[in-house]
Design goal:
348 residues, alpha/beta, Rossmann fold, 2 domains, seven-stranded mixed beta sheet, four-stranded mixed beta sheet, 11 helices, 40% helix, binds 5-S-methyl-1-O-phosphono-5-thio-D-ribulose
Length: 348
Amino acid sequence: MKINPIDWDGNHKQGRAIIIDQTQLPAREEKISIETPSQMWDAIKALKVRGAPAIGIAGAYGLFLGVRNAKDKEDFFSLLEKNFHYLKSCRPTAVNLAWALERMKRKASDEKESTLDSIKESLWKEANAILAEDREVCKTLGEIGNTLVKDKSNLLTHCNAGALATSGYGTALSVFFTAFACGKKIHVYVDETRPLWQGARLTAWELQKENIPCTLICDNTAGFLMQQKKVDMIFVGADRITAKGDAANKIGTYSLAVLAKAHAIPFYIVAPLSTFDFSLESGSQIEIEERSPLEVSKPYNLPIAPENIPVYSPAFDVTPSQYLSGIITEKGIVHAPVTKEKLASFLR
Ligand code: MRU
């Protein structure tokens, strides 16, 4: 698995962030270079880099780029504050972005007595650490999730919680990569994931690259497959998980979870601890990003609806914890019933 959706090229003085432009996939694997916070903001907003852990890493590098040329410490901390709020405003639902930016800000504050150059270098190293830690965490998620997967299973996933959505191995897809690497004969149903087809464009591409047998389905086919007993388990990622285990993920995840419960199919969220937001009690408190109507009526410039048709386009929905069979984290699996008490004692 050699997909590096986000990386750093060079050192802290002259380097730049390099991202795979995910809007070009699967047609082209094109890398773009990011040298300013506003380029990073635009790339995150346009989903050139996307997926909760990946936008956290991107935000961290974006914040470093915003302070790299500070003239003195006063300038540094004022640029830090300004770019922190600017980058945080880009996408509101995935908490990993805010989590990474807050971690970067804490690092700068811990180092405030050092020289300007050494604070800058520490901040760059912190962004590198966020990326490196995510790689380890994704591998662990795969190993833990794999313990649930039986040989010859038919699995299903929604959106893209793969290498592209993280530092390079994925959360939900890490489970599939690990199971397949262990010799399990799995087959994956891939929800195309409207409106922007992250399933069709990205998940199908990643699974094919690894030669994992998979079948692309329209989102509305999943229930029919479940009714026919063709799905054994479902694994998806998450963008924010509250204290009681309600999980925001790509729009359409909630419908899948309800269908899974109706058909007694295990439904798991796979997410790192950086996706938990213990400051929110319940899913109704999660801010849901609304995207441009054109992503629904004219996706990728392809008109598929009458012009000026009113459109409602939330990017995420929230699955209440009672629909989950469990949440797979790097610390282990929180099995159903997922409750606030269990999560608190297990994860803190
Ligand atoms: O709008 P996107 O493509 O950023 O949405 C991504 C998802 O919903 C993923 O499932 C989620 O971020 C988990 S990624 C490991």
